[in-house]
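Please decode residue identities from the backbone states below.
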């Protein structure tokens, strides 16, 4: 899936026939056939013409707008799926605490297992690395997931396992760039900034996918409902955060 990234400030995205054209100061600097584009990411002060917007929407191609620091502003998305029955079921299930908890357990267990596998692969490729303690702590967290009786206690288990993961992670990268652990708002070092940016892009991708499939991206099961938070997209990226 190909993404068109527009990052250089002052660019302008236009439409010419069946192509997207990128201009700077009135001169075309790039031309991209529409069949080569699956989505568009626009950062900062970059213009997009109404013709280009209509073209992208007509082709079913979503566009995400970001601040220059990587934070997501919003998403321009083609018309939502007409699958109303699917969203009705989603809303009903979201009001079922038992279903939400069981689904959240699957999400958390998948995330922790992915973190554990990444540490195992790293140790296999780097015999000098020793993350056995962190691996055991993550395994303990995995084993305790099914015993949890509330989302809040499950969140604590996830937090403990993820803390162990990042304890190993900072040694994996040898604290490059001053990384001493996962911190946000604002990220204090280049690694945290890259992680935050990667998670933002991953969330935008999942937002596109859930929206296009007919789900409501703002209604999740593990992440609670909060104004402006795409909870379902956040639920579904958990198992893929280790890839970032």
């Amino acid at each position: 899936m190909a993404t068109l990234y527009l990052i250089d400030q002052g660019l302008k995205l236009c439409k010419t026939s069946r192509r997207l054209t990128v201009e700077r100061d009135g001169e075309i600097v790039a031309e991209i056939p529409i069949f080569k584009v699956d989505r568009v990411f626009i950062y900062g002060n970059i213009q997009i013409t109404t013709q280009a917007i209509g073209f992208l929407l007509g082709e079913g191609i979503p566009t995400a707008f970001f601040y220059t620091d990587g934070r997501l502003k919003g998403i321009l998305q083609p018309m939502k799926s007409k699958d109303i029955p699917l969203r009705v079921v989603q809303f009903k299930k979201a009001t079922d605490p038992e279903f939400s908890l069981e689904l959240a357990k699957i999400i958390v267990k998948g995330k922790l297992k992915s973190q554990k596998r990444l540490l195992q692969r790293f140790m296999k490729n780097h015999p000098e690395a020793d993350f056995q303690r962190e691996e055991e702590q993550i395994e303990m967290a995995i084993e305790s997931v099914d015993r949890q009786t509330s989302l809040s206690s499950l969140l604590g288990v996830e937090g403990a396992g993820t803390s162990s993961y990042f304890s190993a992670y900072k040694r994996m990268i040898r604290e490059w760039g001053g990384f001493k652990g996962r911190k946000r708002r604002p990220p204090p070092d280049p690694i945290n900034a890259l992680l935050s940016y990667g998670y933002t892009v991953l969330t935008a991708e999942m937002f596109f996918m859930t929206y296009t499939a007919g789900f409501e991206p703002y209604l999740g099961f593990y992440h609670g409902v909060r104004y402006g938070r795409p909870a379902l997209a956040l639920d579904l990226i958990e198992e893929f955060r280790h890839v970032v």
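Observation: The chain has two domains: 3-76, 84-243.
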